[in-house]
Amino acid sequence: xxxxxxxxxxxxxxxxxxxxxxxxxxxxxxxxxxxxxxxxxxxxxxxxxxxxxxxxxxxxxxxxxxxxxxxxxxxxxxxxxxxxxxxxxxxxxxxxxxxxxxxxxxxxxxxxxxxxxxxxxxxxxxxxxxxxxxxxxxxxxxxxxxxxxxxxxxxxxxxxxxxxxxxxxxxxxxxxxxxxxxxxxxxxxxx
Length: 191
Description:
This protein has 191 residues and is mostly helical. The chain has helices at residues 2-28, 35-39, 43-46, 50-81, 96-115, 119-145, 158-190. The radius of gyration is 21 Å and the shape is globular. One of its GO terms (cellular component) is membrane.
């Protein structure tokens, strides 16, 4: 029940953001290039407190996501190199590589935030990488799901496999179309 309520709340929040942004920034044809631009979408709802409301939301999001991302990357790297891992591990010589990776990720985040390109550009690039990488990951998942050994005799077959591959094809075509659209816009901007 909690998961379903969380999904419903997340979707309602997503649609509220989408509608508010379209009604404010989209109606004026303004592009979002900075966090201040994004905060302008809240002006009709929050008035002069829009910037404060956006800043609090952004800070809360960062406080939740940054440690999770740093820890996740550290776990992946530790798994790849067979290091002792886990935030519950005591700080000792064997766990330094794991904790060093966590600290390195946090430091890289600080450096990028202070000296890197616009955070909106990072969001755009993350979306681009996710969009282009999704068909590849989906294809690998379908291949694994169809392997009897991996699935221990419960491999995906029949219409489910067909739907899975159609999804991969659709996502692949959408990614290629988006990449073409983006390349056209970049080429036009460079002229």
